[in-house]
């Protein structure tokens, strides 16, 4: 109840972010229900139904990541002086954040269920009722318990992830005068990228892997190729903070001025916060470019159906929104530093120039990396 009252009094921008989470949850719920409908309509293809359900894990994970990022930037769950005296300590605020995330995802799941029943023709009296009856197996009854179980997965997982991400923790204070240390995931991320590309190359050249049918006529891809891409994506996400930290170091190299020093230090401090979502976006874009190049080369392939397109759009939209939300969180985290710099007379143009330098450094590193991984991923498939 307290989470609902806080939601009613929130800023419109915060409420918009929660509604975006609900919209993403609705898309994931619709994909899950379509997978259930396929399983009901084709009971003899149980393995295909299981693989279709496996495909839904990717947009579900992207939506959970976005929901956690939105929960981290929610001002109503930020510890403030005086709240502990009325029983709203860090643990209670974490519970409120998890409950707010569950409410948003549950709203999206309900919308998905209503839209699914409407397209099946079970709910009439509205435009397009029964428009996808054949695709959604309208001639077969949908098991209600199975549908509700699938729809409950995202709210439970997202609320749990938000609670774990925002749980109270005590971090040791850094030594006085220390510099920021580079994140330790860069070597492991590079190793995962190399392993993923090697597995993808082996699976594509072997040609004997089992097919991985995805929603919407995407049936010709060996399962090993997808496994290799998942490892490559995980490697880019793991290496992202280290690469962002390295960008900050490069900005401060070779006799930097005040602006480059400021840009580099801020980027090093924010490397862990924005590096991982930036690595995930790089992985998604590289996979998109690789898929586009593969199916441009095969003009006779009709690979992408509506549900595959919906899943890919959800992954791309949620990962991009997560990156923008992380950038907003970084801006909120350095608000006091910005105010202090303005109070001592720093020109606003210096802050804007430093922001442009940070963005330019990240683009200069991650855009070529994304292109290189996409080319390497597509090479064994097109060759």
UniProtKB/TrEMBL annotation:
Where exactly are the transmembrane stretches of this chain? 20-40, 52-72, 93-117, 144-166, 186-204, 224-244, 278-295, 307-328, 349-374
Carries keyword Disulfide bond?
no
Keywords on this record? Answer: Membrane, Transmembrane, Transmembrane helix
Please give the name of this protein.
Integral membrane protein
Source taxonomy: Bacteria, Bacillati, Actinomycetota, Actinomycetes, Kitasatosporales
């Amino acid at each position: 109840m307290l989470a609902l009252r806080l939601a009613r009094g929130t800023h419109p921008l915060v409420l918009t972010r929660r509604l975006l989470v609900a919209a993403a949850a609705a898309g994931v719920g619709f994909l899950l229900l379509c997978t259930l409908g396929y399983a009901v309509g084709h009971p003899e293809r149980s393995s295909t139904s299981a693989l279709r359900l496996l495909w839904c894990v990717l947009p579900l994970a992207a939506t959970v990541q976005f929901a956690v990022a939105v929960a981290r930037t929610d001002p109503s769950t930020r510890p403030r002086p005086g709240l502990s005296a009325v029983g709203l300590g860090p643990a209670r605020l974490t519970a409120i954040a998890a409950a707010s995330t569950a409410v948003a995802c549950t709203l999206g799941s309900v919308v998905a269920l209503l839209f699914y029943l409407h397209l099946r023709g079970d709910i009439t009296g509205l435009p397009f009722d029964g428009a996808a009856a054949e695709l959604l197996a309208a001639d077969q009854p949908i098991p209600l318990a199975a549908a509700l179980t699938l729809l409950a997965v995202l709210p439970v997982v997202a609320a749990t992830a938000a609670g774990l991400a925002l749980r109270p923790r005590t971090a040791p204070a850094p030594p006085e005068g220390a510099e920021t240390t580079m994140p330790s995931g860069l070597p492991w991320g590079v190793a995962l990228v190399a392993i993923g590309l090697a597995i993808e190359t082996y699976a594509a050249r072997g040609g004997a892997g089992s097919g991985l049918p995805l929603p919407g006529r995407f049936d010709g891809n060996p399962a090993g190729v997808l496994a290799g891409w998942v490892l490559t994506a995980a490697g880019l996400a793991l290496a992202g903070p280290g690469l962002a930290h390295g960008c900050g170091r490069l900005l401060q190299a070779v006799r930097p001025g005040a602006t480059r020093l400021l840009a580099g230090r801020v980027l090093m401090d924010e490397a862990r916060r924005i590096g991982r979502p930036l690595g995930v976006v790089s992985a998604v874009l590289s996979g998109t470019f690789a898929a586009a190049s593969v199916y441009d080369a095969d003009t006779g392939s009709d690979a992408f159906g509506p549900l595959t397109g919906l899943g890919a759009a959800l992954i791309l939209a949620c990962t991009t929104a997560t990156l923008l939300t992380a950038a907003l969180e970084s801006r909120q985290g350095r608000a006091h530093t910005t105010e202090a710099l303005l109070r001592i007379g720093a020109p606003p143009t210096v802050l804007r120039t430093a922001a442009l330098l940070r963005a330019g450094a990240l683009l200069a590193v991650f855009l070529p990396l994304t292109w290189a991984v996409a080319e390497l991923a597509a090479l064994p498939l097109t060759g």
